[in-house]
Amino acid sequence: EAQVTQNPRYLITVTGKKLTVTCSQNMNHEYMSWYRQDPGLGLRQIYYSMNVEVTDKGDVPEGYKVSRKEKRNFPLILESPSPNQTSLYFCASSLQVTDTQYFGPGTRLTVL
Amino acid sequence: DAKTTQPPSMDCAEGRAANLPCNHSTISGNEYVYWYRQIHSQGPQYIIHGLKNNETNEMASLIITEDRKSSTLILPHATLRDTAVYYCIVRSTGGTSYGKLTFGQGTILTVHP
């Protein structure tokens, strides 16, 4: 089944403890992206990747890192999480940047 | 990308057509209209998109006015499972931000028995 998967789905952590949220797609998509969703603010793009080894900042990249070593994986790294990064995170992918984006199920992160 | 305006909420009876409007009066020639929906904090689900012609797929129909300043998403026979937040998005096919989807507040559609 064609899909975008994220792990973990739920995570509660403490300030400063490094964490990684994984994202994987099995559709051979070139474009991948991370969004965060907060009440009243809609979805905002954090980082995106046009292809392997090509990443760029979205609208709210501060406090996040990404990597794209393989086409299928696009992990989101929080080196030192803070409470303002408590949010619902979505990974999305598309065949190419101009194609329809498909979203993963989301990761709900709480930073205490 | 052009800004969109949607009503904050709508109701629809089960089995009836749900018509969700969207205004995008500043849309430019290379911008597509996309519709997504989100059911209770799940990942947004793609519904349909179009440039200027009306489009139909197994989920819905998209009607775009001739001047492209507004559009309507039609769910022909709404079910209770169609209760969700529906987002109308205008997306450019060029420029530095054309990969980004900008989600507004959307329309909360409630389908009732």
Measured on Cα atoms, how large is the radius of gyration of chain B? Answer: 13 Å
Oligomer: heterodimer
Strand order of the largest sheet of chain B: 1-9-8-3-4
Q: What is the CA–CA distance across the termini of chain B?
A: 37 Å
Order of helices and strands of chain B: EEEEEEEEE
Largest interface: A-B, 27 and 17 residues
Gross geometry of chain A: globular
- Overall mean confidence score, pLDDT of chain A: 95
In sequence order, what are the helices and strands of chain A, one letter per element?
A: EEEEEEEEEEE
Percent range of helical residues of chain B: under 10%
Shape of chain B: globular
The tally of beta strands of chain A, per DSSP, is 11
The biggest beta sheet of chain A reads:
7 strands, mixed
Would you spell out the secondary-structure blueprint of this structure?
The complex is a heterodimer of chains A (112) and B (113).
Chain A: E1 4-7, E2 10-13, E3 19-25, E4 31-38, E5 42-51, E6 54-57, E7 65-66, E8 76-78, E9 87-94, E10 102-103, E11 107-111
Parallel strand pairs in A: 2-11
Antiparallel strand pairs in A: 1-3, 3-8, 4-5, 4-9, 5-6, 7-8, 9-10, 9-11
Chain B: E1 9-13, E2 18-23, E3 31-38, E4 45-50, E5 55-56, E6 61-64, E7 70-75, E8 84-92, E9 107-112
List key phrases describing it:
heterodimer, A: 112 residues, mainly beta, B: 113 residues, globular
Model description:
The complex is a heterodimer of chains A (112) and B (113). With 112 residues, chain A is mostly beta strands. In chain A, 0% of the residues lie in helices and 51% in strands. Chain A is built from no helices and 11 strands. In chain A, the strands form 2 sheets. In chain A, strands 2, 4, 5, 6, 9, 10 and 11 form a 7-stranded mixed beta sheet that branches. In chain A, strands 1-3-8-7 form a 4-stranded antiparallel beta sheet, with no helix packed on it. In chain A, a hairpin with a 2-residue loop joins strand 5 and strand 6. Chain B has 113 residues and is mostly beta strands. In chain B, 0% of the residues lie in helices and 46% in strands. Chain B has a 5-stranded mixed beta sheet with strand order 1-9-8-3-4, with no helix packed on it. A 4-stranded antiparallel beta sheet of chain B has the order 2-7-6-5, with no helix packed on it. In chain B, strand 3 and strand 4 form a beta hairpin. The N and C termini of chain B lie far apart (37 Å). The chains are: A mainly beta (112), B mainly beta (113). At the A-B interface, strand 4, strand 5, strand 9 and strand 10 of A face strand 4 of B.
